[in-house]
Design goal:
The complex is a heterodimer of chains A (303) and B (207). Chain A is α/β, with parallel strands linked by helices and 303 residues long. Among the domains of chain A are: 140 residues, Diaminopimelate Epimerase, Chain A, domain 1 (Roll), CATH 3.10.310.50; 57 residues, no CATH class. Chain A is built from seven helices and five strands; from the N terminus they run αβαβαββααααβ. Chain B folds into two domains: 31 residues; 166 residues, de novo design (two linked rop proteins) (Up-down Bundle), CATH 1.20.1440. Chain B is built from seven helices and no strands. In chain B, α2 packs antiparallel against α6, α3 packs antiparallel against α4 and α6 crosses α7. Chain B starts with a helix and ends in a 25-residue tail after the last helix. Classes of the chains: A alpha/beta (303), B mainly alpha (207). At the A-B interface, α3, α4, α6 and β5 of A face α1, α2 and α6 of B.
Chain lengths: 303, 207
């Protein structure tokens, strides 16, 4: 059977090739979003960093806009526009329904800076305004390697624009309105009778499905509680507890053992998962992105 | 009597049989990917509209830009005309959603836009020679918008390429290939961009 062996070899080759192609796609790594100021290149001093973070928190409390400052050691061979957009999306800056995030990215190694603006703020912090901020306020400081002053000034400007002085800034950037405004185009779903019917059928099936699971879990929990005497056993039940009878295991002793085992295993599953969710929620009190995205709005500069 | 025994047996087996059936039904509905082809198709189409939007936006910026440059650099008539011409050629191609299913028209559209990109970057390059133009606020604003738009085009194209990759892969792999044959006979693979990486770069402008 040479053909079969050939096929196997071809399949193995294809697998190796797929792995080789898949590797570079996952090779790009981003710094962790550890706060509102991510100083990966370690060019900002601590006091400045805290001051900036405080101003940005105040802005988010006021307007829900998420602004993040990042300095990176390397752009990893990407252009600053490309890198900023990918980083913005990886961090999911801005609220999910508003896409109101802004990323101020400084790459000291490559001498590049960019203000990346989420979809929702493109009309407020326009490209021209972002360019004006970069060219007139950031570049002069960046040329002197004063990254902390540049970051602070940039944040002040961005906060000023977002907190309600956008018109003033646009006047200064003198961006003449040109052409119709471009809107996002959503996915259009055809609403027909058939799709509603399908929705009802499938929705019903899903409700049934999860209802069954819920019922099974409830049964397991109640049986466990009865088993550990937190709830009355079948023979001790008075009138008010008669509803418990329907959750009782069948009286066959073999199935009784089985149900005990299943209930205890499901209860351990529950405690494990609740512990996991508790521990993760206790450690996630730091800042995180709200789920927003960017389509490449903003401006960049170099020094 | 037999009936009572049968119902009792059924009742005892019910807690096992019903969840099993429910699980199978759930898997059948959700795990088979019956909705994936139309979902990916709509997503790719939406991404394509975004690409078109951004090209349109660029096109809208151009008359204003040409006028501004003309005020300072009349002698660059050739470059200015090249931009205007490339723009009219690019806008003459009707950018319809079904463009993505027509490789020839897609290529024509793409070539026209690429030509416009080239003409624009030449215009911005020659603008460098005119200090008065370079310090003109309106020109600076337009330039920033144009750069931003070029970048948005790049992002929109990247998103479109990714969406098409997902969709085309779904059409060609199991189990999508089964659904494509059974239900979605009209869903065809979409065209992808085939431009060299360097041609996609935004026009670089030094200050």
């Amino acid at each position: 059977m040479p053909s079969l062996r050939l096929k196997i070899r071809a399949a193995a080759l294809a697998l190796v090739a797929a792995l080789a192609i898949g590797l570079p796609a996952s090779a790009q790594t981003f710094p962790r979003l550890s706060g509102r100021v991510v100083d990966d290149a370690t060019v900002l001093d601590t006091a400045m960093r805290d001051g900036i973070a405080q101003r940005l928190k105040a802005l988010e409390d006021q307007t829900s806009d998420q602004v993040v400052v990042a300095t990176v050691r390397s752009l990893q061979g990407y252009s600053v526009e490309d890198y900023a957009n990918r980083l913005f999306r990886a961090w999911r800056l801005g609220q999910k329904d508003k896409n109101n995030g802004v990323l101020l990215l400084i790459a000291p190694t490559e001498h590049k800076v960019r203000i990346e603006v989420g979809y929702g703020l493109e009309g407020t912090l326009t490209d021209a305004v972002a360019k004006l901020i970069i060219e007139s306020h950031l570049i002069p400081w960046l040329r002197q390697s004063r990254y902390d002053v540049a970051a602070s000034t940039g944040v002040d400007d961005i906060v000023d624009v977002l907190a309600g002085h956008a018109a003033e800034w646009q006047q200064r950037a003198r961006a003449r309105p040109s052409g119709p405004h471009v809107h996002d185009v959503g996915v259009i779903q055809p609403g027909s009778f058939l799709s509603i019917l399908l929705l009802v059928v499938f929705g019903g099936a899903f409700l049934l499905f999860f209802g069954m699971i819920g019922f099974a879990i409830l049964t397991a929990i109640l049986r466990l509680l009865v088993f550990v005497h937190l709830l009355p056993h079948a023979k001790d039940r008075q009138g008010g507890w008669s509803w418990l009878n329907r959750f009782d295991p069948p009286v066959d002793p073999r199935s009784l053992r089985r149900s005990h085992r299943s209930s205890s295993s499901s209860s351990s599953f529950w405690s494990a998962s609740s512990f996991a969710s508790w521990s993760s929620s206790s450690s996630s009190d730091s800042f995180s992105g709200g789920g927003g995205s960017s389509g490449g709005g903003g401006a960049s500069g170099s020094w | 009597m037999t009936y009572a025994v049968a119902t009792a047996a059924r009742r005892r087996r019910f807690p096992i049989v019903a969840p099993t059936l429910a699980v199978l039904l759930g898997l059948l509905v959700s795990g088979c990917g019956i909705n994936r082809i139309p979902t990916y198709e709509e997503q790719a189409k939406a991404k394509w509209s975004e690409v078109e939007n951004q090209y349109q936006r660029r096109s809208d910026l151009i008359p204003n830009l040409v006028e501004t440059v003309k005020g300072y650099a009349k002698q660059e008539r050739e470059v200015l005309e090249a931009v205007t011409e490339a723009r009219s050629r690019a806008t003459s191609i009707q950018a319809t959603p079904d463009l993505v299913n027509n490789p020839d028209a897609f290529k024509k559209f793409q070539d026209a836009q690429l030509q416009l990109t080239g003409a624009l970057s030449r215009l911005l390059a020659v603008s460098e020679r005119y200090p008065d133009l370079k310090s003109n606020q309106n020109f600076l604003a337009l330039q920033a918008q144009l750069e931003g738009t070029e970048n948005r085009i790049a992002v929109a194209r990247r998103d479109y390429i990714e969406a098409v990759r997902l969709y085309n892969t779904e059409l060609k792999t199991y189990p999508g290939i089964l659904w494509a044959k059974l239900l979605y006979g009209t869903s065809k693979p979409m065209a992808e961009f085939t431009i060299a990486e360097d041609a996609k770069r935004t026009p670089q402008v030094k200050f």
